[in-house]
Every structure is written in structure tokens, then in C-alpha cells.
Specification:
heterodimer, A: 223 residues, mainly alpha, 84% helix, elongated, B: 245 residues, 8 helices
Chain lengths: 223, 245
């Protein structure tokens, strides 16, 4: 029963995402646009851009993930899906885990694929591109899950958007520091594996705790 | 024992007990502050490196301690609110957030005042403790904002409690990530003053002030919860009787 419920939620998320696949491109366009804004604002000094590119790439990706969170549970709330989850008898955290994993894949995968391309555009070369891709693959899901918790907490609020950013951004800081730190290290020719391992640790911590916290938030929203 | 605990968690009883304790606690806190400040600002010897300016630690360090302690209290109250639906704990979550945000702001403000003469700058990006403290302030603001966004304050309190608990998991991670940040990014190494081996003549007044800050926190928290109870129970008969005096 638990396995089937998990698979049902997981497949439903992927199918819904596929039917609205045009929307999947929006964060990517946003990401590319922000990366275009920085050189336009800072001037075409390649040396300067190369120095700050790891941070820019990570901050812009972080904002793209943040933008993808706002409506995560709102359709479920309107259609009564969350109520069904709560009353289904299946552990709410388990269902949340299915939704969170699907959500992380849908949001992160396109960004991870595009990130190195944009990095090459900004002048990053060689190993730094690989490190960026790996750091994003480890870090983006964590950002998605923290954002999902924020979305569950602000569920049903009329203007939750700015509040969501306010709650979620401080919690994003460790991921940003390790992620951008790894890429910076690779650019400077230092070993990046320490920061990457820390990111992997956050990933495991996230997958263990985020469903519980999200489930708690969803339950409170249904009271 | 358990009976007494449940009795205490009833708003009416809590109100009565808080009313009885508050005058004593207030007097004790005021006296304690007078003694602690005199001890720290006058009696304690000046620092051999920093002269008289170091005396700000008697406010700064206790504020920083309290900023973290209050967050723990808030998360604890949040857990109680979520698990047992205790109305008092819900109120405590919010009031702790208000007080914690103030302690954090005070720690930041006094830290900047201290940093100006010592480091020659108000703000030092390389200092992990300053950054963690600022992030802590944002976490408090998030809890307050989330709570206030809900028209139903009981629901707002429980949602804020979930955030407070998520925050308590994150605080150590944020702290260490900020600390390691300096080693990940090259350059910008802070030349911090060697930590002066705290002499007992300086340490004792500091610990005393720390205790007084805890006392102050308890007193104000009790007073704020007491007022909030009266607000929320305004339509009960006992609250009506209290109001009439």
C-alpha cells in the first residue's frame, strides 16, 4: 500500500510536469536572463567576471529554484488533494517524500544541464564546469526541499511570495556557501571535494528531514 | 507532579501564578542589573590591550548568549505547541521570537560599536560570528513575519513553530558553514585580537551579567505572556473579573 501510494504520487507529479512542459522552460529562461544581466551591469571585463562567475551562477540558480516554489502545493490545496493525503491513512511524510523527490527532479534537472553552458558563456573552463554540474546536482535538490517547506508553511496565504523568500533565503545560505565554494576552489585550482562532500551531507540530511517538516507544515495548514 | 504541570498550562492558573511572581522577579532583575553593571563597568579591572572599551562585553556577550538561548526556548515551546496543542506554548513561541530578535539586534549593535574602535570598522565580513548573528536575526524576522501573516493567531503560532524547529536544525549548519566559508574562499583573513585569557576578575562579572540577562528574559517573557493570555481569553469570565479588578 505504501509503495503504491508513493508511486502514484510520484507518477502524478511527473505526468503533470510533462503536460505543462512549456512551464519547465521558464526557470531556465530566467536563469539565462539573470546571467545576462550581470555582465551588462558590471561591464565586459572577463577577468572580473571569471572571478565572480561561480557566485553569480549559484546565486542566480538559487533564485530560479526559489521562483519555482510558490505554487508547489496551491493546486493540491484547491483541489482538495492535501485533504485526501491527510485522511488517506498513509503516512503524510511518506507522500511528501514522493512529491519532494519528483519536484526536485523536475526543477533541478534542467538547471543542472544549463548551468555549465552558462558557465562556459561566462568564461569558466575545464574542471570548473564539472565541479559546477556536480555541486548543482547535489545542492539544487536541497534548495528545492527547503523551498517546498517554505511553500507548505505559507500555504493559503494571499501574498505568500515575498514571505516565502524571507523565510527560505536564510536557510539557503549553507548550500550556497558550499556550492559556490566548491566552484571557486575548482577555478583557483584547489581541491573541491571537501565542499562537495559537505553538500552531499546536506543532501542526505535534506532527504531525511524535509519530508517530516513539510508533512508537519501541511498538517497544520489543514487544521 | 504531572497534575501540577497541566494545571500550570491552563491559561487562568498561569495568569494567577505569573501575577504573583512578577513583582518579585522585577525587583530582583532591577537589583541584579544594578549590581552587575556596577561590577562590570566600575569594579572590574581595565583590559591590558583594549583599555576601558572592552567593558561593552558585559552587555554584548550576554546578549549574544541569550540570542541563541532564546531560539532554543522558542523551538522547545514550538515542539510542545505542535505535539500537545498547549495554548501557552503557542503564545510563548511568538513572544520568544520578539525577545530573541531584540537580543540579536542588541548583540549586533553592541558588536558593531565594539568593532569600530577595535578593528577600525563597523562590519567585518570575515568574522563568522557577526555573520551568523545577522542570519539569526533574519531567522527571527522570518518566524515573526510568518506568524503575523495568519489572521488566526493560534494557527500562525503552530506554523511559526514548524519554522522554528526547522531553524534549530539549521542553526548549527549555518554557523559552521559561515565559519568554514573563510577557508573555502581565499583571502580576507581577519586579524583578530588574541583572545585575552579571561581573568577571573573579568569573568565573574560577565557570568553574573549572563545570569541577570536570563532573569531579565524570564521576567519579560512572563509579563508578555500574561498580557497575551488576557487578550486571548478576553471573553472568559475570569478575564472579565480580572479586568474589573
Amino acid at each position: 500500500m505504501m509503495g503504491r501510494a508513493f508511486a502514484a504520487v510520484f507518477r502524478r507529479e511527473l505526468r503533470l510536469a510533462w503536460r505543462r512542459r512549456g512551464q519547465l522552460l521558464q526557470p531556465l529562461v530566467f536563469y539565462a536572463l539573470v546571467m545576462l544581466l550581470f555582465p551588462l551591469g558590471a561591464g565586459a571585463d572577463l577577468a572580473l567576471l571569471g572571478q565572480v562567475a561561480p557566485s553569480l551562477l549559484w546565486v542566480a540558480a538559487l533564485l530560479a529554484v526559489l521562483l519555482a516554489q510558490g505554487t508547489l502545493f496551491s493546486a493540491d490545496l484547491e483541489e482538495g488533494g492535501i485533504e485526501l493525503w491527510v485522511t488517506s491513512g498513509v503516512s503524510l511524510g511518506w507522500l511528501a517524500l514522493a512529491k519532494l523527490i519528483a519536484h526536485a527532479m523536475i526543477v533541478s534537472l534542467p538547471l543542472i544541464l544549463v548551468g555549465p553552458v552558462l558557465a562556459g558563456w561566462l568564461g569558466l573552463r575545464g574542471e570548473a564546469l564539472w565541479v559546477l554540474a556536480v555541486s548543482m546536482a547535489l545542492g539544487m535538490p536541497v534548495l528545492c526541499w527547503i523551498g517546498a517547506l517554505g511553500a507548505a508553511l505559507t500555504l493559503g496565504l494571499p501574498r505568500g511570495g515575498i514571505l516565502l523568500a524571507l523565510i527560505v533565503l536564510p536557510l539557503y545560505i549553507p548550500v550556497l556557501m558550499f556550492g559556490a565554494g566548491a566552484v571557486h576552489a575548482a577555478v583557483d585550482g584547489r581541491p573541491a571535494d571537501g565542499a562537495l562532500l559537505l553538500l552531499a551531507g546536506l543532501l542526505f540530511l535534506g532527504v531525511s528531514l524535509a519530508p517530516i517538516a513539510t508533512a508537519a507544515a501541511l498538517r497544520v495548514s489543514q487544521e | 507532579m504531572f497534575h501540577r504541570f497541566t494545571a500550570l498550562s491552563s491559561p487562568r492558573h498561569f495568569y494567577a501564578i505569573a501575577s504573583a511572581w512578577l513583582p518579585w522577579l522585577s525587583v530582583l532583575t532591577a537589583l541584579g542589573f544594578a549590581v552587575g553593571l556596577y561590577w562590570g563597568l566600575v569594579v572590574a579591572p581595565p583590559d591590558y590591550q583594549q583599555g576601558e572599551a572592552y567593558r561593552i562585553i558585559y552587555v554584548h556577550v550576554p546578549s549574544a548568549w541569550l540570542s541563541l538561548m532564546v531560539y532554543t526556548v522558542m523551538a522547545g515551546a514550538g515542539l510542545v505547541a505542535l505535539v500537545w496543542h498547549v495554548k501557552l506554548a503557542e503564545i510563548a513561541v511568538y513572544e520568544c521570537a520578539v525577545l530573541g530578535a531584540w537580543f540579536t539586534a542588541l548583540a549586533l549593535g553592541t558588536g558593531m560599536l565594539w568593532g569600530k574602535p577595535m578593528w577600525g570598522t563597523w562590519w567585518q565580513w570575515g568574522d563568522a560570528r557577526m555573520l551568523s548573528e545577522l542570519i539569526l536575526l533574519f531567522l527571527y524576522i522570518g518566524v515573526l513575519g510568518l506568524h503575523n501573516a495568519f489572521a488566526d493567531s493560534r494557527k500562525g503560532a503552530r506554523v511559526a513553530a514548524v519554522l522554528a524547529l526547522a531553524g534549530i536544525v539549521n542553526i548549527p549548519i549555518i554557523h559552521y558553514s559561515v565559519e568554514w566559508w573563510n577557508t573555502l574562499h581565499q583571502g580576507a583573513t581577519v586579524t583578530r585580537f588574541d583572545k585575552p585569557a579571561a581573568h577571573s576578575s573579568m569573568l565573574w562579572p560577565l557570568l553574573f551579567m549572563g545570569t541577570m540577562f536570563i532573569l531579565y528574559f524570564s521576567t519579560v517573557l512572563l509579563a508578555r505572556i500574561r498580557v497575551r493570555i488576557l487578550e486571548q481569553e478576553a471573553d472568559r469570565q475570569w478575564a472579565e473579573e480580572v479586568r474589573r479588578g
